[in-house]
Amino acid sequence: MSIIKTILWVLLAIALVIFSINNWNPVEIKIWEDLLIVTKLPALVIVSFLAGLVPTWLILRGTRWQLRRRIASLESAVRSSVGSKQETAVPAAEDPNSSKIYPPVM
């Protein structure tokens, strides 16, 4: 699975390099009325891509971290619950309420 992910990232990088070579043109970006930024088109595309990717990636990492903590907490609660039940359980041979089967007397 990681080889597929690596191949996709390499293909994305190659596509970005080809796009950058073919579109190395200056672009004017008007932020406010008197604020004008002149940059190259590939820089604008990369910054826009990262502006969408980074917050989404951070939310994903935070959610996974939170869920892993919750799962670990639940697993430890189950382990302690099962462990305490095993300590307090009486074996069937020593249980006075267990039904003992005797052979019929003749």
Automatic annotation (TrEMBL):
Keywords: Membrane, Transmembrane, Transmembrane helix
The species this protein was found in: Candidatus Andeanibacterium colombiense
Segments crossing the lipid bilayer: 7-25, 37-60
Top-level taxon: Bacteria
Protein name: DUF1049 domain-containing protein
Keyword Membrane applies: yes
Disordered as annotated region, ranges: 82-106
